[in-house]
Amino acid sequence: QTIWWGNWLSLVQWALALLLLVVPVLYECSRTFKYFCKMAFYNGWILMLAVLAIPLCALRGRSVENMKIIRSMLHHVKHLYGIRIEVRGLENFNLAEPYVVVSNHQSSLDLLGMMEVLPDRCVPIAKKELMYMGTVGLACWLGGIIFINRKKTDDAIGVMSETARTMLRDNVRVWVFPEGTRNHNGSMLPFKRGAFHLAVQAQVPVIPIVMSSYRDFYSKKERRFTTGRCLIQVLAPMPTQGLGPEAVPALTDRVRQAMLDEGSSGGDGRGFWGREGDYSGVAGEGGDGGLAGEGGDQFAG
Ligand SMILES: CCCCCCCCCCCCCC(=O)SCCNC(=O)CCNC(=O)[C@H](O)C(C)(C)COP(=O)(O)OP(=O)(O)OC[C@H]1O[C@@H](n2cnc3c(N)ncnc32)[C@H](O)[C@@H]1OP(=O)(O)O
Ligand SMILES: CCCCCCCC/C=C\CCCCCCCC(=O)OC[C@@H](O)COP(=O)(O)O
Asked: Does residue 189 line the site of ligand 2, with CB under 6 A?
């Protein structure tokens, strides 16, 4: 019996040793394997951080003030991934009154940029499905994140109208991704109008944000995830005072155009959208013309 047990033990030891050898080799050699490891860790780490955030947030109950806890908890994640975030125009957020922030939406990594610049008392609007993502859903709820049901337009619009009142009553700012979904292809999808109806109903300014394309360090399609840089530009507030619902389409177009203009010519003239964005303005030329990668990647081992 002792002999059998000993053999079994050494078999386990061998298997473990092999695993310890194979995983790092695979990680270094296979771009796809590395991509999946990094994404899995990203999701797992955030689920775990939410476990820590929940009891702290629960002391206050559901409150926008809890976004400060969530923001500070997520702040270090960019370092784990060697992503350098450079922010410009942060002074545009210095308004006493509430406002609606609108930003382009590339992937779940937007969370890193969002937590880099998120003003105090500002909550994102998110799809309802996020509420069911375990601990993350609960943390989001405690942070006062506003959930909308994208499958029921009337419901979503009702929540947005309610939000206009809440913003003014409780002095709350709101962050919306007006594309309404993630867009991995550089540049931007057409905008949905909810954010702009919201701003007009509350008579508060819209503050656009452009986040540069992740193409140099991240591509879901190519299963590529390395280190890199991201530039975030906060644009000047766009007033809505005196505008009525009929002005919403024009406001939407104006804001989108301002973001596209910034995206094509901003970032020191290198552009924000990378090489294959559907906007063929002054895009970064050549391999390192854009926002190329650097920084320490903890995952590189
Ligand atoms: C520690 C761990 C913590 C973890 C933390 C995690 C943080 C997580 C961060 C989370 C980040 C998560 C990020 C995410 O989850 S992003 C996904 C969810 N976000 C959005 O979808 C926001 C953008 N969407 C919109 O604005 C849409 O318009 C909505 C959703 C409102 C409706 O969309 P829908 O597709 O159903 O309909 P439609 O757009 O064709 O509109 C129909 C008509 O209604 C008009 N209309 C629209 N609105 C209003 C209004 N208010 N008053 C009056 N009218 C309004 C509109 O103009 C149009 O009319 P017309 O123009 O054609 O005549
Ligand atoms: C017990 C249930 C366990 C569920 C496990 C879920 C694991 C996910 C855990 C953490 C994820 C953290 C990142 C969440 C924040 C990113 C929000 C986001 O980017 O939502 C996408 C939404 O804007 C657009 O959605 P679609 O592109 O239309 O789709």
From this structure: no
